[in-house]
Structure formats: C-alpha cells, structure tokens
Amino acid sequence: MDDRPTARIRIxxxxxxxxxxxxxxxxxxxxxxxxxxxWEIHALSGYLxxxxxxxxxxxxxxxxxxxxFADFVRGPGAILRYLKGVLQGSTGHxxxxxxxxxxxxxxxxxxxxxxxxxxxxxxxxxxxxxxxRQFAPEGLAKTLTSLHHLLFNLLLALAIVHILAVxxxxxxxxxxxxxxxxxxxxxxxxxxxxxxxxxxxxxxWLGLAVLIxxxxxxxxxxxALQPF
Length: 228
Known about the structure:
Shape: globular
Number of helices: 9
Helix content: 55-70%
Radius of gyration: 20 Å
Distance between the termini: 62 Å
Main location: membrane
Keywords: Cell membrane, Membrane, Transmembrane, Transmembrane helix
Order of helices and strands: EHHHHHHHEHH
Protein name: Cytochrome b/b6 domain-containing protein
CATH superfamily: Transmembrane di-heme cytochromes, Chain C
Strand content: under 5%
Number of domains: 1
CATH class: Mainly Alpha
Membrane topology: Multi-pass membrane protein
CATH topology: Fumarate Reductase Cytochrome B subunit
Oligomer: single chain
Pfam families: Ni_hydr_CYTB (PF01292)
Strand order of the largest sheet: 1-2
C-alpha cells in the first residue's frame, strides 16, 4: 500500500466535464430518437453534438493542459509501454488521460465526429433530411446515409469498451476515474508538483462561455440550414 501523503488537485476543468457528460446524454438521446423516428429531437440532438465537437476541437488546442490533444494523444510506442506497465503492475501517475485512455478518447471523438457529419448529409427520402443534404449529390448523400447507420454500431461497441475499461480500472486498480470527471479533482502525490500543475488551467467562466457560445451558435446555424 502507498502511504505517501497526497493532495487533491484539479484534473478536469468544468468545460471539459460538461462536454463529456453532455455528449454522453446527447448520444443516448440521438439513439432513442432515431430508433423511434422522432426526427425533430434527433436533428436537434445532432446539431448540439456538432456544436460540442467543434468546441472540443477548439479546446483541444486552447483549453486547459489536460484537455489539450498534445497532452493525451500519444504514439504507439507510448501506448505499448503503458500497457506493458499495466501488466507489470506499474502505471505511474497521470494528471489526465493515460496513453491507452487517451487513444480511446481520440478514437471515440473521431467516430462521433464521423457519425455527426454523415448525419448532416443523411436522408430517409421521406420524413428526414439533414441540413447539408442539399449540398451533396444524390449518390454521395446515399453513401453517407448508409455510413451514418453503420458507424453507430461501431460507436456503440467503442462506448461499451470504454465503459468496461473504466470499470475494470476502478475494480482492479482501485482508481475511480468517474469521480474526477464529476468533481474535477483527484488525489496526487504531495511531492511539490501539484502546485505547478494547477497553473495550467483556463478560468472556469471562460471555458464554460466558449462551450455555450460555440455549441449554441453551431446548432442555430445548422437549424437555419434545415430545408424543412
């Protein structure tokens, strides 16, 4: 057991946490509304997801350190070394995503982005037409519509793997990754590094303002492009 003293430090800023939970909720809403052909709700959910993804792209370059792509998107070598460490029982401390978790997050973001983009061009030729369908040739629109349906199955599988990995990490390593995404804080060795790490956070009000403005503006623009 590690008896070294620990400190509670910030891990995730409020904007990143709100993005995470809002995206999870909206993906469920999109799934249920799509299955029940509630197209108005499905469309609104998709527009909000598009806004959230645009925010996350911006935040990946200008947000708090743990939210930046440079902090958690690592190469295959770093991922393999981390996984080797997991097997050996030594993974170190990570303020943010570990290499394997970062890879999963990056993959999920890419698939969700592809899902949303294809949905903007999708059409069922009867009741629903995405706001960008009018700008795509018929053949391309049909291809993107098919991809929209296929990508969901991949997204669902990745989401399940992500949830199981978080649960296993909690059960096996006794490390709760869910709580920091709720509170924004986690334990860190009190070795003097915590104070330095605390300085790399964007003010909460600024992050939340950017998230709300970008998401709302994107949704309004896409809704205005909706042909009917």
